[in-house]
User: Which sequence fits this backbone?
C-alpha cells in the first residue's frame, strides 16, 4: 500500500451508526480487528489492550451495568440513564476496549495512549473490511460490574465502546480544517 492508498482508507473511515442491526459481525472478524489494535505503539511493552465483544442480549446487560452505576453515583439525568440502558443495542456488536492499570503514573498514561492508538488501527481495519463503526466514550470508565462482565481485571480503565455493524447507508465526510504545520530548522 502506498501513502495515497492509505490516505483514501483513512479519509473513508466514517463514524456512523447507520448499520443493519439484523446482520451479525462474525466473531473471527472482531478478533482480527482486535489483533490489529495490538500493533499500535506501546513504548514500555506493557501490552495494555483489553477487549470484550458483546452481542445479542449481552449488549442490554452491558447497558444495565453502566446505567445502574450511573444511578448509584447520581451521574447524569433520568434521560441519560434510560438512554444508556438501551444504547449498546444500536449495532450488532458493542466492543468494550480497556486499558490495563499500572503502578507508575507515567506508564498508566502511556497505556491509555497505546490503547487509543490501537482503537484507530481497529477502526481503520473495520473500514477496510467494509464495516461501519462508531467510537463512543463510556458514561463511566471504572464500573466494577462492567469490568466483571468484560472479564477484565480490577483497575482497567474503559477507553471506549465501539459499535460495529454492516452499513445500512452512506455518511458524508465532514470538512476538515486546513492543516498547519510549524517547520523548525
Assistant:
Amino acid at each position: 500500500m502506498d501513502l495515497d492508498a492509505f490516505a483514501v482508507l483513512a479519509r473513508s473511515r466514517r463514524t456512523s451508526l447507520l448499520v443493519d442491526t439484523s446482520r451479525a459481525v462474525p466473531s473471527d472478524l472482531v478478533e482480527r480487528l482486535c489483533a490489529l489494535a495490538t500493533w499500535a505503539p506501546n513504548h514500555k511493552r506493557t501490552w495494555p489492550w483489553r477487549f470484550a465483544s458483546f452481542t445479542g442480549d449481552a449488549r442490554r446487560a452491558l447497558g444495565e451495568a453502566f446505567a445502574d452505576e450511573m444511578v448509584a453515583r447520581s451521574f447524569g439525568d433520568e434521560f441519560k440513564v434510560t438512554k444508556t440502558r438501551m444504547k449498546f443495542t444500536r449495532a450488532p456488536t458493542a466492543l468494550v476496549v480497556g486499558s490495563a492499570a499500572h503502578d507508575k503514573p507515567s506508564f498508566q498514561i502511556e497505556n491509555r495512549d497505546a490503547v487509543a492508538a490501537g482503537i484507530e488501527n481497529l477502526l481503520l481495519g473495520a473500514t477496510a473490511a467494509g464495516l461501519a463503526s462508531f467510537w463512543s466514550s463510556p458514561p463511566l470508565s471504572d464500573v466494577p460490574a462492567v469490568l466483571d462482565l468484560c472479564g477484565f481485571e480490577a483497575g482497567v480503565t474503559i477507553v471506549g465502546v465501539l459499535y460495529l455493524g454492516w452499513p445500512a447507508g452512506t455518511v458524508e465526510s465532514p470538512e476538515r480544517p486546513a492543516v498547519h504545520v510549524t517547520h523548525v530548522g
In short: The chain has a mean pLDDT of 95. The helical segments are 3-12, 27-37, 58-72, 78-87, 105-128, 144-150.
